[in-house]
Amino acid sequence: MGVFGAVRDFLNNTSLHGLRFVAQKERHWTERVFWLACCLVSWVSSGWLMLASWDAFQNNAISFVVESTYLDWDTTFPAISVCEEDNMERVYFMSAKLYGEDHDFNLDEVLKEISYFRGSAYYIKEFCFDGHVKCPKSNFTKLAKTIRSGCPEIFSECRVNNVAFNCCDHFLPLDTEIGTCFALNSEQGLRVNGKKDMMPILANRKEPKASVYLELRVQSNVHIHSAEDVPFLNSLSSEVFVAAPLIHKRFGIAVREIENEPGVRDTSTMQRKCQFDDENDLSVYRYYSYSACITECRKKAQLAQCNCTSHLMPNAKESEICSLEGLMCLYQHYTSFSVLKTSWSRKEGLSCPCVPACTEPEYNIVTQESFGIAHNTSRIELMLDRLPSERYKRNVVRGRLDMVVSMGGAAGLFVGASLLSFVELFYYFSLRLCRPDDAEEEEDSKEKKSDKLDKASALVPVMVGPTSGAALRPSRTGSTGHYANNLVHGPLPPQDPSYYSRF
User: Fold this and answer.
1) Number of H helices, E strands in the chain
2) Which residue, among 61, 91, 479, has the nearest Cα to 263 in the 3D structure?
3) Disulfide: which of 1, 120, 311, 337 matches 140 by Cβ 3.0-4.6 Å?
4) 213 sits in which H/E element
5) Dihedrals φ, ψ of 484, to 5°?
6) What per-residue string of b and e applies to 254-265 under the rule 16 or more CB within 10 Å gives b?
7) What are the boundaries of the region Disordered (predicted)?
8) 323 and 369 share a domain?
């Protein structure tokens, strides 16, 4: 069978509606044109509806709503990170210890820029390339960890809901692009043995209040964030509190969390426009978050522009860390690395294709108070101002099953297609096309013989009752005879008397 014959065979026998009227030879050409036009309109309409279903599945599969059934919620207190800020007293002490009491005091500024590096390198540029100051040339990561304060030097007292605890047992080291911080209840912070040490703080109807009290010895920034997030250069100012000496600051926090329907995980990142923490392909951290993604993006931009990255960058290889010349390159492109911009913006900055985390809550400062204290420490008190009355929720409105049902309904409505219709298409143009010609001719001859037998066959009358010759004699000749008030179709039997004597 040739291709043309296979097409004609398919059109004559397919279960798709309307196509057989196009292929039948006995149809007038106007009928064929009419049915061909109807089939084309149906196929185009079906395809248009299928594309609309696919577009809705890709772009409108998730609904983002506000839920207010809040009576039985457990509200999680945010994770807290404490990051030391420009501790010049510590720098003076460590520089005297490392380089002696009579060292050049410009070196102190250089060490401060290295230890608390955020892109600025003014003193490195002024004093490290003219030979006047003997600046360190390598091991910047180790030098920064040596100069920066450890956990016992930072924390003086910690309390949760007015219950004291050992600060350094729960505030764990967390490497960030702004240096080593100490984080409470962070997924990214790990102990040396690799085990997490979480102390979750929950608030609900039974325990409506939750608070954390910190007393710090050094000037630091206190960050609040989700468990997967980390402090980074672009942290929101509303989520960073400056711990200044001789001041007690108290903040009331409002939390609005995000819940995800179980089916949200079955959708793609493009559909839900967010990413779960375990869907991580980043090298800087173990879990995904928006801040972790921005950190990774900045690292790649630094490597692309300067062929090295900051010595404070988490999980940076030794071969990737910048020398003094590399730090100067980062300083010259400071705006390109530190300022975030959208992909369509023309201003100078960093454009990163990062989506938010699917469980990232929203934090707002509701109240703020400050008091002067006599002690040379800084106190930060964070408390949950009230239990939340609403939260966000992602629901799946168009899942895979909805898409299949929609597309199947469109195909069935317009062209009468089903899954087996496409199996037919495969069959007619593969297995049936490869059938031997002898088998095809034999099948055609059998069909012709069967048609001839059907046309030549006649119904034989069965007579019941009187059998007189008058009753059996036909009333008229022709192709139709009338015997004993019974209508018989087909040729009349022979009128030989011996033929009727058998009855």
Assistant:
1) 18, 18
2) 61
3) 311
4) strand 211-216
5) 50, 50
6) bbebbebeebbe
7) 465-503
8) yes
Residue 164 contacts by C-beta under 8 Å, 6 or more apart in sequence? Answer: 157, 158
Profile the chain (503 residues) by mean pLDDT over runs of 10 residues: 70 81 84 89 90 88 84 86 91 88 86 92 88 85 92 94 91 93 86 61 84 94 94 91 92 92 89 91 93 96 95 92 93 92 89 93 92 90 88 88 86 83 78 61 56 51 45 44 46 52 47
Please tell me the pTM assigned to this model. Answer: 0.76
Handedness of CA 441, 443, 444, 448 (dihedral sign): positive
Q: Among 410, 436, 462, where does a domain finish?
A: 436
pLDDT at 61: 87
- Looking at residue 468, its pLDDT comes to 43
> In 347-441, where do the E strands start and end?
362-372, 378-384, 391-396
For the beta carbon of residue 380, count every other beta carbon within 10 angstroms. 22
Residue 340 placed within a domain: yes
Q: What's the number of CA atoms in the CB half-sphere (13 Å) around residue 246?
A: 1
Contact between 362 and 225 under an 8 Å Cβ cutoff? The reply is no
Residue 240: phi, psi to the nearest 5? -125, 130
What pLDDT, on the 0 to 100 scale, is given for residue 480? 43
Task: Assess contact for 456 and 462: CB atoms under 8 A.
Answer: no
Domain boundaries, position 211:
75-87+148-396
Place of tokens 């296979």: 6
CB burial of 267-287 (b: ≥16 within 10 Å; e: otherwise) equals: beeebbebbbbeebebebbeb
Q: Under a CB-based contact definition with an 8 Å cutoff, are residues 231 and 99 in contact?
A: no
Residue 330, helix vs strand vs coil? helix
Structural domain count of the chain: 2
**Please, are residues 320 and 308 in contact by the beta-carbon 8 Å criterion?**
yes
- In angstroms, rounded to a whole number, what is the distance separating the alpha carbons of residues 414 and 407? 11
Question: d(Cα 124, Cα 128) in Å, to the nearest integer?
Answer: 5
**What is the rounded radius of gyration, in angstroms, for the C-alpha atoms of the chain?**
42
Structure tokens at 328: 């100067």
What's the rounded Cα separation, in Å, for the pair 141 and 321? 9
Q: Tell me the C-alpha distance between 111 and 146, whole Å.
A: 11
Examine the fold and report which residue of 436, 462, 497 is the final residue of a domain before the chain moves on.
436
What is the longest distance spanned by two Cα atoms in the chain? 150
Phi-psi region of 219 (alpha: psi -120 to 50; beta: other; left: phi over 0): beta
**What's the rounded Cα separation, in Å, for the pair 337 and 290?**
16
Q: 224 with 311, same domain? A: yes
The C-alpha atoms of residue 66 and residue 392 are separated, in whole angstroms, by 5
Bridge partners, 368 (sequence order):
251
